[in-house]
Amino acid sequence: MTGTTGLPMAVPAPGLPARVRIHEVGARDGLQNESAVVPTEVKAEFIHRLAAAGLTTIEATSFVHPKWVPQLADAEQLFPRLSDIAGVDLPVLVPNARGLARATELGVGRVAVFGSATESFAKANLNRTVDESLAMFDPVVAQAREHGMHVRGYLSMCFGDPWEGPVPVAQVVRVAKALMDLGCDELSLGDTIGVATPGHVTALLAALGEAGVATEAIGVHFHDTYGQALANTYAALQCGVSTVDASAGGLGGCPFAKSATGNLATEDLVWMLRGLGIETGVDLDRLVVTSNWMADRLGRPSPSRTVRALTHKG
Amino acid sequence: MTGTTGLPMAVPAPGLPARVRIHEVGARDGLQNESAVVPTEVKAEFIHRLAAAGLTTIEATSFVHPKWVPQLADAEQLFPRLSDIAGVDLPVLVPNARGLARATELGVGRVAVFGSATESFAKANLNRTVDESLAMFDPVVAQAREHGMHVRGYLSMCFGDPWEGPVPVAQVVRVAKALMDLGCDELSLGDTIGVATPGHVTALLAALGEAGVATEAIGVHFHDTYGQALANTYAALQCGVSTVDASAGGLGGCPFAKSATGNLATEDLVWMLRGLGIETGVDLDRLVVTSNWMADRLGRPSPSRTVRALTHKG
C-alpha cells in the first residue's frame, strides 16, 4: 500500500482508553438494511472472515419474525454454521420471548434486546409504548440471565427522532436506567438517524454517569448520515467509553440510496484508533479485503472512505 | 426538510471557541482538483452564491502559471467579476513574485503562499528544497505586507507525506515558525493526504503553542481521505483553533476517483458546529442548494454526507 507505510502515525491523546472493543454489526445491522437478501453461506463466510480479521465481538443475526426482517430470516440456519469460530462473541438480537427461546435452543451465549428512547419509534418499531416495550423485555432479560447469557440493551433514537426531533437527555437517561435495572449487562446508545454531534454525546454520557450507569457498561452506536460518526466517537472515547459499534465497510448505510442510514465503517474507526495508539486487535488490511469481498457480493463499492483509500492505493 | 426540524440539537461542549471562521476553499482548492475546467462565469456565480450563503472568507483563485493549473488559468478574468461582493474576504494564492504582481494589479487584498513541511513535496510541487521555497516566499510576503495585504501561509503535508510517510512534529514546527517569521499573518496546517488523527492534531498544535505560534494565527485544513477530517477538526477546536478550511459540497475530493483527495465538506463542518452551538454565520440550507447547483454543473453528486442527507430529505 504505497504511501501509507507507517501511517497513520500513532500519537496517543490524553485520557483515552488503552483498548477499544469493537462491536461489529455489519452482519446484522448492516445486512438487515441492505436491499439484497444475502445467501446464508455468504453470511457465514463473511462472519468467518471478520473473525479472521481479528474482530472479537460479531453480532451474527436476529431471531426476529421473518416477516419483519426477511434479510435475516435464516437465523436458525446461519448460527450453527458459526460453531467452529473460537474465542469470538457472537451475540444475536432477540426481540421477545419467542426469539429468546429460538436462540436458547441453538446455544446462543449473548443476546440483545432492542429498545427505543422515544415513544414514536417504540410505536413504529415495536407497536408499543416505551414502558410497554420495557415490560416486554423484562421476562426476556430475566430468562436470558437465568440461562447465563450476557445481555445487551440497544437504545435507539438517543439523540434525535424523525418524528419528534431532538430527544431530551433526561428522557434517554430514564430508559437507559430502566434497561440496566432490568438486568442488562451493557447498553448500546444508538444515534439511529445520525444527528448527534460531539457536545450532545458528551452531555448524554455525563448525565448517564451522574445517574449511576457505569461507563464500562456503555457502548456507542453512531451513524454517519451527516458525516459526524467519527467525531462523535472521539468525544465518547474522551468520556471513557471503550465499546464502539461499527459495520465492516459501512454496510447498511449506502450513501447513494435515499434510505441511507450510514453505519460508521469499521475501517474508518480502526484507522482513527490506530492513529490514537489504541489497541483493537483488528488487522486493517485483512478487514479491507473482507469488506471489498462483501461489496462484490452486493454489487456495489463500500462507502467507507478508508476502504476506498486503501483499495485505490493497493 | 422532514425529520431535521430543530436538528442537530445545539449542545455546546466545554472549552470550545464561540465562533468559527470558515475559510471556504471550494472555488480554489476544490475546482483546482476537479478534472473538469469550469467556465469563468460559473465560477463567478459560485462565489456569489457562497457569499450569499453567509461565508465570509472565500478563497477565489490562484495566480499560478496557467501551465501548472489550467483549471484556474482565468484568474485575471474571474477576480474583477467579484468586485460587487461586499463584506467578504476573497484571498487568492500567489506562488511567487510574478503571481503577486498580477494580484496587486487587480487590487487583491489577501494573498496566500503555499509551502511544504516536507522536502519531497517541496521538490515535487515547487521544484525547490524547503529552505529554497522559504527564500522564494520571503520577498513575496514582504511586498504583500508593504501593499497592506493580509498574508496566509499554507503548509502542506503536516501529518504525513506520500513519499516520506509520517512527518515529525518538530519538522512541521520549524517550517511553520519560519513562515510566521517571514511575516505571515496566519497559517493553514494542511493534512494533504488525509492521514492525520486527533491525537496527532493535538500534539502538533501543542508543539506550535510551545514554539510561540499564537493559536489565533492557526487554521486547520483537513482532508477526508480516510474519513478523519471532522474528528480532527473537533480535536483542533478543543485546542482553541477557530479557523477551519472546508470546501463547499466537498469539492475537489471525489470519493469515486483514484486521485481522491477528499476535502472536508463545508456542510459537514457546519452541521457539527451548529450542533456544538458555535456560530459560523452560514445558512446551511442555502449552502446545500449551492453545492447541488455546482454538482449539477460538474455532472456528479456532491460527496458530502450532509448535502446528500439534506437533499434526500428535501
From TrEMBL, chains A, B:
<dbReference type="Pfam" id="PF00682">
    <property type="entry name" value="HMGL-like"/>
</dbReference>
<dbReference type="GO" id="GO:0046872">
    <property type="term" value="F:metal ion binding"/>
</dbReference>
<dbReference type="GO" id="GO:0046951">
    <property type="term" value="P:ketone body biosynthetic process"/>
</dbReference>
<protein>
    <submittedName>
        <fullName>Hydroxymethylglutaryl-CoA lyase</fullName>
    </submittedName>
</protein>
<comment type="similarity">
    <text>Belongs to the HMG-CoA lyase family.</text>
</comment>
<dbReference type="InterPro" id="IPR043594">
    <property type="entry name" value="HMGL"/>
</dbReference>
<feature type="domain" description="Pyruvate carboxyltransferase">
    <location>
        <begin position="20"/>
        <end position="288"/>
    </location>
</feature>
<dbReference type="InterPro" id="IPR000891">
    <property type="entry name" value="PYR_CT"/>
</dbReference>
<dbReference type="GO" id="GO:0004419">
    <property type="term" value="F:hydroxymethylglutaryl-CoA lyase activity"/>
</dbReference>
<dbReference type="GO" id="GO:0006552">
    <property type="term" value="P:L-leucine catabolic process"/>
</dbReference>
<keyword id="KW-0456">Lyase</keyword>
<dbReference type="InterPro" id="IPR013785">
    <property type="entry name" value="Aldolase_TIM"/>
</dbReference>
<keyword id="KW-0479">Metal-binding</keyword>
